[in-house]
Amino acid sequence: MDELQSEGIMLILSSPSGAGKTTISNELINKESNLVKSISVTTRKPRPGEIDGKDYHFINEKEFFSLCNTGQMLEHAIVFNYHYGIPRESAENNLKNGVNVLFSIDWQGAASLTRVMKEKVVSIFILPPSIKELQFRLKKRNCKTPDDEIKNRLDQACFEMERCLYYDYVIINDNIDDSVQKIRQILYSEKMKVKRKMNLKNFLHNMSH
Ligand SMILES: Nc1nc2c(ncn2[C@@H]2O[C@H](COP(=O)(O)OP(=O)(O)O)[C@@H](O)[C@H]2O)c(=O)[nH]1
Ligand SMILES: Nc1ncnc2c1ncn2[C@@H]1O[C@H](COP(=O)(O)OP(=O)(O)O)[C@@H](O)[C@H]1O
């Protein structure tokens, strides 16, 4: 066990819709014991197969605004006409206890979390191998999604991908296992950074006395 304790990292994953961040997030959570996913709240309706409290907390607009107005949200944004936001308490408690927290959020959320939480944040942008592959994945995920909604998401994707310039890392999600492995390597390296070691001075002091 590492005697040098690190504070929890806020690991942000963003990508255009359909590039694979949900799939990658789920794999990461399965593989990393010290990583938990932050469950956002949203006013979007659940997709088939999505579970309330696991994929999102599905709430109505009134409940959403009440959370915002009482300071219970770390950040919130409108994406594809619905409200999304990060509940503050659970994320803050995990970080305090040295647990890493994964945020699968859009570029607006990434920008505002980075502005507020600064060095606690490590941000990764996931790119699809091509627009054609992105279109294929969007259709594969939910064949009931209307064509105009897929077109809307593809149009947005080009704009969103430009945002990768402002992230710490960028990954092309060709193969899921490779992408997951790359992110795990980033997490391990980030945890070893001197600035994240909470008890380094004490450790050195104890060694020399
Ligand atoms: N800013 C922000 N974005 C979020 C949050 N939760 C999810 N999102 C983003 O909202 C967008 C739409 O998410 P979703 O409805 O699940 O669609 P998907 O990206 O196609 O799976 C995605 O880019 C998510 O990463 C949040 O709490 N804050
Ligand atoms: N590397 C990959 N190769 C092939 N298909 C993938 C890959 N990553 C994700 N997918 C598939 O693409 C679809 C969209 O992935 P998803 O994780 O829901 O994207 P996002 O959360 O970014 O919207 C899903 O059907 C998923 O199984």
UniProtKB/TrEMBL annotation:
GO terms for cellular component: cytosol. InterPro entries: GK/Ca_channel_bsu, Guanylate_kin-like_dom, Guanylate_kinase, Guanylate_kinase_CS, P-loop_NTPase. It comes from the Bacteria. GO terms for molecular function: ATP binding; GMP kinase activity. Gene3D superfamilies: Guanylate Kinase phosphate binding domain (3.30.63.10), P-loop containing nucleotide triphosphate hydrolases (3.40.50.300). It holds the Pfam family Guanylate_kin. Keywords: ATP-binding, Cytoplasm, Kinase, Nucleotide-binding, Transferase. Its EC number is 2.7.4.8. This is Guanylate kinase. ATP binds at residues 15-22. The gene is gmk. Essential for recycling GMP and indirectly, cGMP. Belongs to the guanylate kinase family. The keyword Phosphoprotein does not apply. It catalyses: GMP + ATP = GDP + ADP. Residues 8-188 form the Guanylate kinase-like domain.
